[in-house]
Amino acid sequence: MSTGISMSSVNKIKELADNGDYSLALDILEHQDLSKSLSPQFIRICGEVYYENGRYADARAALVRAHSMAPAGNKIIYSIIKLYLSMGFRKQAEHYFEIYRFNQESKDAGTYRIEYMIAKAYHKPVNELYSILVSANDVETSEEWDYEMLLLHAYIRNKDKFDSAAIEFKAKYRNSSRLSTLDSLIENTESLESKVYIFPCEDRNDDDPEQEEIREFEKKILDEDDLKIHPKDAKS
């Protein structure tokens, strides 16, 4: 660990994360002192790097700190929700979703996508997932979410829509790392259920002793959030 964090490292981590090279980004991040960063959005990116490398405790520490610095930053909250669903902390994820909605004036693509992820965490029927994702992609789409729609088409066995969307995906995202997986979906060799329902289906206890410090810090931040959302309740 270095005694600081250099701008060249910051820029490289951002570049690698943006390109999906999370393993290489982690190699650089490991040699930086993230506590020196005053940018909540950069700390969020680092949290996502930890998340993509399966370092959930480190991701949590980074993302909660980022949220404390920018309570209205919904990109940060979105990342926390995804992390907590992956950790099996569904109630905590739903609590953060309440904060997200409070911060968001109108329903955006992120709102639908969080609804979609929470529905997946509760193993809702695939037709319900499909309906939510259509609404999200009508607002805004990307490679990640176009691919997610392909997964649902394949899982539902909607071959016509899958074939059409697959051709469009290949043309639109020629350099995508997902193309090899897409071929497997077309050939029907992938385990589709495990790719759709990626989150734990049962609530897990948030009782890891090594995360006690971040839990206590997070509680204080959430108390402040609750004060903004429910001022009357806080006073009573």
UniProtKB/TrEMBL annotation:
It comes from the Bacteria. It comes from Coprococcus eutactus. InterPro entries: TPR-like_helical_dom_sf (IPR011990). This is Tetratricopeptide repeat protein.
